[in-house]
Amino acid sequence: MGVKERRDRQKNSLRKEILDAARDLFASQGYENVTMRKVAEKIEYSPTTIYLHFQDKADLMRSICEETFDRLSRKLEKILQSPGDPVECLKRGLRAYVDFGLEYPQHYRVTFMTPHDVDPDDVLVAGSAGLKAFSILQQGVADCIRAGKFPNVDVASASQALWATAHGITSLLISHASFPWVSREKLINLMVDSMLQGMAA
Amino acid sequence: MGVKERRDRQKNSLRKEILDAARDLFASQGYENVTMRKVAEKIEYSPTTIYLHFQDKADLMRSICEETFDRLSRKLEKILQSPGDPVECLKRGLRAYVDFGLEYPQHYRVTFMTPHDVDPDDVLVAGSAGLKAFSILQQGVADCIRAGKFPNVDVASASQALWATAHGITSLLISHASFPWVSREKLINLMVDSMLQGMAA
DNA sequence: GGGTATACTTAACACTGTTAAGTAGAAGCG
DNA sequence: CGCTTCTACTTAACAGTGTTAAGTATACCC
After folding, report:
1. pTM to 2 decimal places
2. pLDDT per residue as tens digits for the range B117-166
3. Which of A150, A173, B64, B99 could serve as A199's disulfide partner, Cβ 3.0–4.6 Å?
4. Beta carbon of B10 within 7 Å of strand C?
């Protein structure tokens, strides 16, 4: 019964084609400026074919964001589980977070800069890819606390504050790219260092 | 020649009616979910009438955001020019910034969480209302530096870092409202205090 | 009162995401 | 082989969007 398998393979390969085309378009033109018809034209199928593989436009974008954010999660895991001072690891993790956001601004925008929870059902589903990355950061914070590096703060507060810090600079650099920022390096260092120092106090 | 004046008055009053209707709708339903036809229906005019007073939908929203952010600017001016420790003033200013964003999430979203500068011409125009508020904060930072409170940091770096800090928590609370945040109070205090402490070090 | 400017509306365009209905062809089965 | 059924896909259409061009009634000016 290899027939069904071949069919599945074909179906999957078209799904991948759609994802590839959409990823390109979303990254270069932004979610709102990409139409289903544009994606369809790029893969040389009719627009409705996409709906055989994805529920709607948002679902298509979500799939792509999940892929991309999985890469961030893996990178963060590697960084935060590396040996050495946990605070130093955390610092490197936060930097990696910002770098990632700036490397995939469109994905970051859709995942973290767009309101997500009108529907209280899919709260967990909606930003799940992004929230997984956060939970890894949180684990890094927990390591620091366990090592006695952050007295007087709890895991939740500290990790949320550090997330908001990294998100603040990431999202502002994305939304106001042509603002006369000081050196990105300097800014990130100042923020991350100050915040980590605040946790350590 | 009071005729033209009366006409102007009438024209202005319709403009105000449009602004009032649109402000309501934008605040309650969000920019994307408000259509020109909805605004028109609310003021009981035809949709095209709006275009006699505003260039397009974005222009309408921009006018409203400018109004709203002007109120923030005035509030920040009052806070930052009040007597006492400039660092304490700055802290209160940052808190006011976050509170403002949470009070007008839709306005904040459009002004600060949406990319603005595809067109390099209207960089200054686009987020002008919001950027004015930033420049007032920057002045507060300058006061702190002048008072010798922030050694080892320059005005630009410090104010940008503090802006990003306030923006980080504001925008995350807006975009992920149903995330299990720790107490808002606690979070803002932790972030602002840590960052200010970092500047003071 | 006749001509002109003003304020507004109606109709339409080009486009969007999405769905319902239709079609060619392969698969399954006698 | 021949018939039916299922699968992958397309065509046509819907309801809606922001926006513009063309038309209309009314108030103003002389």
Report:
1. 0.92
2. 655 444 445 567 889 999 999 999 999 999 999 999 999 999 999 999 99
3. A150
4. yes
